[in-house]
Amino acid sequence: MTDWEVAGVPVQVKRSGRRRTVAVQVTPGAVTVFAPTRVPLRQLRDILDARREWVAGHLATYAARPPARPAPFHGQRVPFLNEELTLHLDEGRSRPERTGAALHLPAGTAEAALTSWTRRACAAPYRDLVGTAAEQLEAEGRLTAVHVSDTRTRWGSCTADGVIRLHWKLSRAPAAVLHYVAVHEAAHLLELNHSSRYWAHVSRVVPDWPAHRAWLRQHGHTL
Fold first, then answer.
1. How far apart are CA 173 and CA 79, in angstroms?
2. Are 59 and 9 in contact, with CB atoms under 8 Å apart?
3. What stretch of H or E contains 15?
4. More exposed terminus of the chain, fewer Cβ within 10 Å: N or C?
């Protein structure tokens, strides 16, 4: 435990015997220093002090952001894969069901039902989208599977054996942003890193990728 703080936010230190480097993580309302067990507390404080302005800037950015998406309510319009669905919260309903542009949800479990429906509904479109991205990169032979993810910190991932995952919340993003993430992950089928060769692959298919990445950084928390 420490009594450190930045901009009024307490700093938590987490140590691990397997860790080899020190990292400072900033999330909304929280600052965490990850460190190897052998690094003295005084050295960690020096590292934090050196990054204090950076940490405070990120905390201020998070604090200035608008609140995240509200809980589902009757009549709410929700984007889904470049469409817009209207939510209907029905008493007595046991499972979600889409009828045209209307998505009917159990009133008592609307948020969980919306999440589960979205994860199922975007699975097949995600497979098609990533498959197309892999073809555009001439890497389709290295793609083995596409799954829907629900991680807290990553929009997508690609494993060495060709498994790509995209977050279900990306189904609410603009189509161009979702396409960029699909290409971003598919490019890892060719380069499992972020080298200049990797970005050359991405740029060949999505030349304006920096704008889409910036959109995610600015608006991703609202999805």
1. 8
2. yes
3. strand 9-16
4. N
**How many of the other CB atoms lie within 10 Å of CB of 94?**
10
Q: Can you read off the two tokens belonging to residue 107? A: 């009133």
pLDDT at 1: 59
The answer to whether 150 and 156 have CB atoms below 8 angstroms apart is no
Length of the chain: 223
| Cα-Cα-Cα-Cα dihedral sign, residues 129, 134, 138, 141 | negative
Residue 194 C-beta-side C-alpha neighbours within 13 Å: 3
Cross-strand partners of 87: 103
Band of pLDDT at residue 151, cut at 50, 70 and 90: confident
**Could you give the CA distance from residue 145 to residue 189 in angstroms, rounded to a whole number?**
12
Q: Is 46 helix (H, G, I), strand (E, B) or coil?
A: helix
Packing angle of the helix pair 41-50, 52-64 (nearest 10 deg): 60
Q: Evaluate if residue 67 carries a pLDDT over 80.
A: no
Half-sphere exposure of 63 (CA within 13 A, CB side): 11
Tokens of 222: 């609202």
- State pLDDT tens for residues 32-59: 999 999 999 999 999 999 999 999 888 8
Cβ neighbors of 223 (< 8 A, separation 6 or more) are 69, 169, 170, 172, 173
